Amino acid sequence: MSSVILRAFGDLLRTVTCCSRMNSEGNIATCSGCQKPFPAGSRITEFDGKQFHPDCFACADCHKPITSQFYPFNSVTCKQPISAQSKISMVDGQPCCVNCYEDKHAKRCSRCQKAIVADVEYLEFEDKYWHKECFTCSKCQKCIAEESFYQDGNLILCKDCI
């Protein structure tokens, strides 16, 4: 009998709007990429405790700025929308855009051969990977991602098919 580990990956990326109060108090000083200051009212990308101009936070592979669909949230003090967040992937400690990650670095599902992307539950068994929904019994095709299963040679079987 074997067990399966489900994992998710991706790191938090936030985009905030810089206000003059934040600058005057020194909360946001300079871009970690280009070392230039942030003008009041400009957009700032925050990642791993560092702040960047949006154009300075770029993919390590294609060097294009990393952008995504963002989900705004409000300031704790004034309740105004000030920032947004998204998930990104890291490769060797460097940020990687969704396209480059999926094309060059993502694990591939052993069944469908599609990329296993950030925030998707997947399974790992004997150095192979499956999307949760692709991990099925070799005989009846029933999803066995959250069940006990048995291995018979190259076959992975549910308890009903052994």
From TrEMBL:
PROSITE patterns noted in UniProt: LIM_DOMAIN_1 (PS00478), LIM_DOMAIN_2 (PS50023)
GO cellular component, one term: Z disc
Keyword annotations: LIM domain, Metal-binding, Repeat, Zinc
Coiled coil: none
Gene3D superfamilies in UniProt: Cysteine Rich Protein
Positions of the LIM zinc-binding domain: 29-106, 107-162
Secretion signal span: none
Keyword check for Kinase: no
Entry-linked Pfam families: LIM
Keyword Cell membrane listed: no
GO MF: metal ion binding; transcription coregulator activity
Protein name in the entry: LIM zinc-binding domain-containing protein
Organism listed in the record: Rotaria socialis
